[in-house]
Structures are given as C-alpha cells and as structure tokens.
Amino acid sequence: MCDHVKMNLKISTAVATPHKVVFAAFNEKLFLALKPPLLPMKLLRFDGCNVGHEVHIDLGLQVWISLITESVQNEEECYFVDEGSQLPFPLSSWRHLHLIKKNKDHTLIIDDITFSSGFVLLDFFLYPFLYFMFWLRQPVYRKFFGAV
C-alpha cells in the first residue's frame, strides 16, 4: 500500500458571472445539477460550504461523507475545500478544492481534486473515470453562470 502517493486532477471552466455571485450559488440545487449521469446518488444532507458543514451522499450500497474544512472569500477568489471523512470503496483519501477565481472579464471555476485508493495502479485506473465525471460539470457550470 502506498498512502503517500496521491493523484491530482484539475479542470477549469470559464463563466460570465462574477466570482462572488458564483460562490454564493454553490448550494443544494447546483450540487444536484452537477451529479454525474448514470450515477445512483441520493443527497442525504447538505449543510452548505462553510467550515464545519457536512455533505452526505447515498451511493446505493455505500455512503460518502465530506466535511468542509476551509472556506475563504476575498476580492480575487472564493473557495471551499471538502475532505472525505467516510469514503466509498475504493477511495481512501479525497480532497476537493472548489476554487472560484476572478480573471479579468470572467470567472474561472476550478475543480482541483487530490485522491488516493492507497494503490497506485488502481489510482491510475480511477483517474480517467473521475476526470470524465468532473469534465461533465463544465456544461452545467456554463448553463448556471453563462458561457464566456
């Protein structure tokens, strides 16, 4: 087992809405709209995006629980971090930085995910599936916040 090795994926989406407005819209409605198609998922709890808040997801046979461990808003960027406290197999660690960054005449929404299963070969297998799931968020972000 290689707990010290973690995979990272990062996907950026440019949108037309100001960054603070985008950050304020990270709510239960947007969360449900971002659900990957064909993934059996039921939202059990969504507290919000502030430190100490929790998100609980029923994935059928397993429950995923994430805790919001960081949340920052300023004139240049807003972000929050969710970290998995109870993860579905095969994940052993999960950290998702939701970065909403002011960028001249538009806003960048950056999904920056660090994960591990504890097994490097399995992580390489999981990477394209996770990348695709988060890539599918781009049209949803553009629908909610306007394309650039």
Can you offer a commentary on this structure?
Strands 1-7-6-5-4-3-2 form a 7-stranded antiparallel beta sheet. Strand 5 and strand 6 form a beta hairpin. The chain is an alpha+beta fold and 148 residues long. The model has no long low-confidence stretch (mean pLDDT 95). 25% of the residues lie in helices and 42% in strands. It has one domain: Alpha-D-Glucose-1,6-Bisphosphate, Chain A, domain 4, CATH 3.30.530.
Assess the beta-strand content as a share of residues.
35-45%
The CATH class turns out to be Alpha Beta
Order of helices and strands: EHHEEEEEEHH
Q: Which ranges are low-confidence, i.e. pLDDT below 50, for 5 or more consecutive residues? A: none
Rg value: 15 Å
Number of domains: 1
Shape: globular
Helix content: 25-40%
Mean model confidence by pLDDT = 95
CATH homologous superfamily classification: START domain
Please give the number of β-strands.
7
Structural class: alpha+beta
CATH fold field value: Alpha-D-Glucose-1,6-Bisphosphate, Chain A, domain 4
Major sheet details: 7 strands, antiparallel
Largest beta sheet: strand ordering:
1-7-6-5-4-3-2
Count of helix runs: 4
Distance between the termini: 44 Å
CATH architecture call: 2-Layer Sandwich
In short:
The protein is of the alpha+beta class.
Which terms summarize this structure?
148 residues, alpha+beta, Alpha-D-Glucose-1,6-Bisphosphate, Chain A, domain 4, seven-stranded antiparallel β-sheet, 4 helices, 7 strands, 25% helix, 42% strand, globular
